[in-house]
Amino acid sequence: xxxxIEEVLFDQKQIxxxxxxxxxxxxxxxxxxxxxxxxxxxxAYLWTxxxxxxxxxxxxxxxxKISSYHGGVSSSNEIALVTDVQSDVKGRDILILEDIxxxxxxxxxxxxxxxxxxxxxxxxxxxLDKKEGRKVDIKADYVGFDVRNxxxxxxxxxxKGLYRNxxxxxxxxxxxxx
Length: 178
What we know:
CATH architecture: 3-Layer(aba) Sandwich
Order of helices and strands: EHEHEEEHEEEEH
Number of helices: 4
Strand order of the largest sheet: 4-3-2-5-6-7
Helix content: 10-25%
Structural class: alpha/beta
Oligomer: single chain
CATH class: Alpha Beta
Number of strands: 9
């Protein structure tokens, strides 16, 4: 798999340092609260595991699965709710854990869904923020790294279900997907 990577952007040590930094900030920002952490499957599972261990608060954890890429390298602009959250979100402070914020459409979909169900607040902690790809006006509250407009894989991010198990985030060679 390493041969399919053009460039490693963030190694495991850098990712752990980002999880430490965000975990500490989240602990401070949510002091005295019991937020509901909502991990977006499948991509955010590794990031969620790292960040949640750095949060020194009582938290609830749920998973939600949406789909917008449908196996390609760019968003289809059609968001589908695949697996819904099991908890009642009414009155809750929600922290969405996301692998990457790209177009922002998936995040907007989730935020609108949770607020329409009565969530008190919705914030986002993302491993990667690809601001160049935005199609909607939305931002992440906690960002591990800004990333340029390249197709990245690893550390939970995939291409056709592959590369999630790479211990780093890297740019996938264009020859793999073109």
